[in-house]
Amino acid sequence: MRKSIGQWLLRIVLTVMLALILASCAVTAAVFVMSSFGVSWPPSSETSFETVPAPDYDTNPYYTNLLQIECLDNGYYYARLDEGLQRQYEYILHEVLRTATEDTALSDGGDGISLTLRGYAHTEETLETLFFSVYNDHPELFFLRSGYTYSCRGKTATLGLRYSMNAAERIAAQKAVTDVIRTLGEGCRETDPYAVELYYHDALVTRCTYDEEAAKADSDSLLFARSSSPYAALVEGRAICGGYARAMHWLLAEAGVRSTVICNDDHAWNMVWIDGEPYHLDPTWNDTEDAFIMHSYFNVTDADLLSGRELDIRTATFPTATATQANYYYREGIFVEAVPSEALTEAIRTQVEQGETCVELRFAPSVYQEALRYVDSGEVFAAFGFLDEEEELAIWRRIAYSTDDRVHTVVLTASGS
Question: Fewer CB within 10 Å, N side or C side of the chain?
């Protein structure tokens, strides 16, 4: 009996020891698995996903996005978030990319994904800032709609991201938009940041037409959402301002030119940095119903652009834009400070000799009214005195013109005989 009891006790001890060893191995395995996905272990009482460091996309298979989206660097908006919001921004980005090829749905049945955000005392304002930071920094998430759902309770919030495409549509659209960006990139022979910006601006404005129907649609409609995407601008060739601005940001980011998207409740445009200086760029306003490309809002200042425009909380804080060196008219030598003048004639000559049938001019504010009178009276024909070919004279025998009083620009258009 004593021997049996001893054996029984020994068996219990051995079983307990084996269980402890197995438990230790399990914890070790769990730590290894979680560490491979960038999760710290053991967690502290405050630990949640927002403390997870940004993953290495090249080595971490968990974050491989099956849609093969080339993720852009976290941009201007990300840099202005506090650390807690930055971690949640990263989590949102990772989850959208990770599930991009899956058909996921929100509670209302619409395409999208629902995410639980823990560890941050969110308000309506912080969630709006968080969402639009991701939305504006990452135009490559072209299927992400600007509307979202949310709920907050303590340090837990639920964010419902709405998509404008299902998984099959996203896969097909990604290939199409990538092909366009690659083709445009292969056509760019420029290296100077200003010239690169000008190339992509002109390519976008040539490729895209403003979508009047979508602009009149309800902002919560699928038509409005799709027309606000860079896919609409680059592939379908019809978009509203959000599509122009996000496409421009994507193109410049791929080319290594720093830019971002600025928006308010009514409009979206870009800020671009050239030689370290910030400028406003509005490709939508530069697109006209005519066959030519305007540059009235190519690298302009706050004074040029922000008069009459309100910025809201989604735009964060932006640097003051006062430089003019990379403004299109200054850089191209078609900024005119006297009327009439040799500078005016030379600005016209330069463009006509390049084969242009539309001549763009910008006048100093002090001479703008005189310039309008000069054009309207027909005296401007004197500035075309350099023409000597009969064909050129015929083309410019009649001139139509348009103006923009905000930035003091005049476009002269040859209307023939």
Answer: N
Q: How far is CA 5 from the centre of its chain?
A: 76
Instruction: Output the pTM of the full model.
Output: 0.82
3 state DSSP class of 116: strand
Beta-carbon contacts of residue 194 (< 8 Å; ≥ 6 apart)? 274, 275, 299, 326, 331
Round to whole Å and give the CA distance between 293 and 413: 12
Distance, in Å, from the CA atom of 281 to the CA atom of 296, rounded to the nearest integer, reads 9
Rounded Cα–Cα distance for residues 132 and 124 (Å): 12
Residue 322 and residue 201: Cα distance in Å, rounded?
A: 21
The CATH number of 167-324, from 3.10.450, 3.10.620, 1.25.40, 1.10.287, is 3.10.620
* Whole-angstrom distance, CA of residue 227 vs CA of residue 164: 10
Per-residue pLDDT of the chain (417 residues; tens, 9 = 90+): 444 555 655 566 556 565 555 545 443 333 322 322 222 222 222 323 333 344 444 443 333 444 555 667 778 999 999 999 999 999 999 999 888 888 988 888 889 999 999 999 999 999 999 999 999 999 999 999 999 999 999 999 999 999 999 999 999 999 999 999 999 999 999 999 999 999 999 999 999 999 999 999 998 899 999 999 999 999 999 999 999 999 999 999 999 999 999 988 889 999 999 999 999 999 999 998 777 899 999 999 999 988 766 665 455 688 999 999 999 999 999 999 999 999 999 999 999 999 899 999 999 999 999 999 999 999 999 999 888 877 777 889 899 999 999 999 999 999 864
Domain residue ranges in the chain: 49-163, 167-324, 332-414
Task: Name the H helices within 306-401.
Answer: 328-331, 342-353, 368-376, 390-395
Tell which residue, 48, 47, 52, has the closest CA to residue 63.
52
